[in-house]
Amino acid sequence: MKRIDKIRNFCIVAHIDHGKSTLADRLIEKTGTLAKRDMQAQLLDSMELEREKGITIKLTPTRMNYTYNGEEYQLNLIDTPGHVDFTYEVSRSLAACEGAILIVDASQGVEAQTLANAYLAIDNNLDILPVVNKIDLPSARPEEVKKEVEDVVGIPAMHAPCISAKEGTNIEQVLEMIVKEFPAPKGDENGKLKCLIFDSYYDNFKGAICLIRVFDGSVKVGDKIKMFQTGKVYEVTEVGIFVPHEKSTGVLLAGDVGYLAGSIKNISDIAVGDTITNALDPIDAPLAGYKKVQPVVFCGIFPVDGAKYNELKDSLEKLKLNDASLEFSPEVSQALGFGFRCGFLGLLHLEIITERLEREFNLDLITTAPSVFYRVHKTDGNVIELSNPSSLPPVVEISKIEEPFVKASIFTPPEYVGAIMELAQEKRGVYKDLTYLDAGRVRLNYILPLGEIIYDFFDSLKSRTRGYASFDYEMADYAESELVRVDILLNGEKCDALSIIVHKDKAYARGRALTEKLKKIIPRQLFEVPIQAAIGGKIIARETVSAMRKDVLAKCYGGDITRKRKLLEKQKEGKKRMRKIGSVEIPSEAFMSILKLDDEG
Amino acid sequence: MLGVYVHIPFCQRKCNYCAFSSFVLNEEKQTEYVDFLIKEIKNFAKNNTKKVDTIFIGGGTPSLLPIHLMWQIFQTLKSEFVIDEKAEITIECNPNSLTLHALQEYKQMGINRISIGVQSLDDNQLQFIGRLHNSQTAINSIKMAKEVFENVSVDLLIGIKNQQKEAFLTDLRTIASLGVTHISTYMLQVEGGTPLAQMAENNPALLPDDDECVGIYESAVKELAKLGFNQYEVSNFAKEGNKCKHNQKYWRGDEYIGFGLSAHSYINGTRFANSNNFTDYYKSKIAMTEKLDENQLITEHIMLGLRCDLGVDKNYLKSLKFDIEKSESLADYVQRGIIRTSGDKLFLNPQYYGVNNFIIAHLLP
Q1: In 3-state terms, what secondary structure has residue A491?
Q2: What is the pLDDT of residues A331-380, one digit of tens each?
Q3: ipTM (interface predicted TM)
Q4: pTM
Q5: Nearest one of A146, A162, A143, A92 to A114, comparing CA atoms
Q6: Inter-chain residue contact B271 with A556, CB threshold 8 Å
Q7: Which of B 164-203 lie inside 8 A of A, CB atoms?
Q8: Closest by Cα among B122, B182, B132 to B152
Q9: If we measure between CA atoms, which residue out of B31, B109, B94 comes closest to residue B63?
Q10: Does B273 lie at the interface with A, CB-CB under 8 angstroms?
Q11: Quick check: A566 contacting B, CB < 8 Å?
Q12: B359 — contact with chain A (CB < 8 Å)?
C-alpha cells in the first residue's frame, strides 16, 4: 500500500453539546497518542475560557496512528469550532479533509447546527459518517435518531455507530469506520506544491504559524514558498505535525496535515483559506473557496479607568496576534473618552474577546451596545458605511439606509412554532418556509435583520421555547430598512455612547425602555436630571431622576473621624467608575445596562 | 491646647438605635471601670504636660455614674492636667437620671455645660426608640439644668417613626423657650446589629424616607435661625457665643485625648482608639492606630472643614502639596454657588450641608 493510501483526514462536526470534544479525546486516548494520565479533560479545547463555556473556538489538529488489519494508518483529526460565528473557519477546516464525522445526540436528535454543519461538509464534497452519541442516557433513542438523520439530513445512517464518548463505548468501531469509510487523500507528492491554510496561530519564538493541508507536492525546511492572497514569499524554517503538540518533521508531503513556520511576523499576513505554493515552481491558480473574513458585529470598548487606554491597546494587540478576525481602531467618545471600536465575527466572538480582556489582562471595561455595519446612501450620492450610531449623518442628508440580513433556520418541537413566529415577527423577520421534519421537529426558515439578532434574540428564543429550539444563520444580503437613530439626552446633553440605531416602528418603545432603565441606574445628583430619548430634535420619551437631598448626617461619635474618612474614601473610589456627561455622573454599568432591556418581552 | 474626652459606657438600658459602647449599669463594674480610667489618665499625663481647654464627659449615660465616682474622675483630671480657666467642660445627661443635687455637684466639679439627650418631645416616639423618659421629664430636666447652668444644650433626633414636621418645629420652639443655648439635631442612623436595624428590616415602612427626613431637617434649620440659633455645623446650632468648643476641635483637626472604653484620640498626627471590650481595655489594648499620611490629612481637612463653618484652608492644603484650586469640580461648585470662597478659605453653602459627602468626594485628591 502506498503511503498516501494510509492517510485519513477527517473532522468532527456537531451541534453544540452533542459531544464533539469528548469523542475527540476518546480517539486520542484509544490510539495511544497520549497516555491517559496526560489527558486533560477535553484536551482539544485548550483555552480556559473554551473549557468553561464548553465550546471550541480554536482548532487544534492531531495526528493519531491506528493499526487496522495489520496496517498502520495515519489519522489526522481536524477539530472545528462549533459556532455560527466561525462558519468560514469551519468551512476551511472541512476543505482540508476528505471525511466528516457527524455526531448526533441520541436523545436530542438533529439540531440546527447538526444540519448547518452537515451541509457545510456536503458542500465541501466530504464523505459523512454519522455517529449517534450519548447512548448511555436513559432518554437515548438511537434508532429513531438514525432515521431522523436519514430523513432530515438526507444521508444514509443505519450503519452509524452508536457510542457513548463519555463512557468510551464503541470507540473502536468509530476508528475502524474512519479507515473503511473515508477515502484516502488523492494527490501527487511529486507534483507542484499546493497547500491550503486552514488556520493560523502565533508563537512567540517562531512567529505566525500556518496550519496546512498539503494537496500536491511537498514542502520542506529551506523551501521558498509563496502565498497567493498576499503575494508574499517566505523561506520555510520549520514544518511538522501535531501529536497533539508540535513535532518537527522537516518535510510534509501530499496528503499530510501539519504546520509550517517561516519567520512570518504577523498573523494578519496569513489569510485563512489562502493557498501556498512553491515560489520557484508555482501552480497557476489557487484552491477555490477563499474569502476575506469580515467582522459583522461591532462595539465600542473603553477602559473604565481612562488612564488604562494604553493597557487596553496592548491587550487588544496581543489578542490580535492570535486572532486575525479581530479588528479594532481608535475611537473617541465624549462620554467614555478614548477607546476602540472593535469588529467581531459575531456575538460569541465579541463575548469571548471582552471576557479575555477582563480576565487575562485584568481590565475593567465599558462596552457599548453591539451594532452591525450600516450602508448609508446620502442625498449627495455618496455611500458611507458605519457601525457607530453617533457617526450617522443628519436625517436630511440621508436618502436611504441599508442593513445586513441573515438567512436563519430554527429547529423546534412543534408546540413552540407559534411563540417563535411571534418572536420572529417582533424582530422584523420575513417568513420563508416551515418544514415538518418528523412528528417532533419543525424547521422554520426566516430572513432576519442581523441587527435584531444581536439584540437579545438568543435569550428570547431560549426563554420562549424553554431551551428546546436551536438556531443557526448565514449572512445574506443588505437591504433597505427604515432606520432611525435614537439619542439619549441627560440634562439636555446628548450622550453619544448611548445612541442606538433602530427601526422606526420600534423607536418609541426602545426610547421609553431606555429612559426607564436609565432612571433606575443613574443615582440622584445634586440637581434634578431629566433623561430624554430623542429622534433628531424630537423628544419621544422622558424620565426624571429627582435631586439628591441627603447623604449622611451622622454624628461623629466620640471623635471617631477615621470611620467617617473611610466611608468617604470608599465613596471617592466609587466615583472613579463614574462617567460625566456634562455635569451628570453616570455609573459605567449604565452603558452596559442598555444591552438588556426587558421591554418587548 | 488639648481636648479631653472621657467615656462612661453605662446606661440604664440600651436604646434601640444605639450601636455605641455602652452597658447596663452595675455599681461594682463602675467602680472597677473608674479605677482603671484614673490609671489611664495618670499614665497619659505622665508624659504629657499640655494645657487642656475642653473636657467632654460622654457616654453611655454619664449622669448615671454615682457622684463620688465622677468626683474621683474630676479630681484626677485637675491634678494631672493644667486646665485653662476658660475651659469648656461638658457632661452628657439623660432627662430621667438628672437630679438637682447632681447638677449642683457638677457645678462644684467645674463643669459648665450640660448636654441633655432629649431626642424628642413626643412620648410615642420616645417609646419607639427605647428611651426611658417622657416629654414632661425632658422638659423638667431642661428647666432644672437651666436653674444651675447658663450653657445648656439639647440633642434631638430626626427620622423617628411618625415624625411630623410641624410637631418637630413646635418642639424646637418649646425647647428654645426654655432658654437652651445650643441644639443638635442628628439624623437617626440605622446601624447594623441594633434592635432598630432588625425592626426596620422586618418593616421597611417603619422609618420615614430620606425625602421626609430632609424636609424636616431643612425646616428645622430655618426655624432655628428664626429662634436665634446659628448653624455652625451640619447638625449643630448655637446661640451667639455658645458653639461647642470640644466638637470644633474634632472638625478643626486639633489634638484630643480620649480616655475610657472605645475612646478615640488624635495626637501628633496619629489617630488611635481604645478597645471596645472591657477585657482588652483593661489590658490597655489599642483597637486601632493610624499615623495620617499627607493624603489622609488632606481628606480629613476637606471632609471636616466643609461640614462646618470652619471652612477649608487652601494654604494648608498647599502645604500638603495639594492645590485644590486645580480641581475642575471646585470651579463648577463655586460657579454654581455651592461653595463660597473667602480669602484663602472655602466654605460649603449651608444649604448643601445635607449632601456634603457627595460634594466632598469630588474635591478629594
Answers
A1: coil
A2: 999 889 999 999 999 888 898 899 889 888 999 899 998 999 999 999 99
A3: 0.87
A4: 0.72
A5: A146
A6: no
A7: 184, 186-187, 189
A8: B182
A9: B94
A10: yes
A11: no
A12: yes
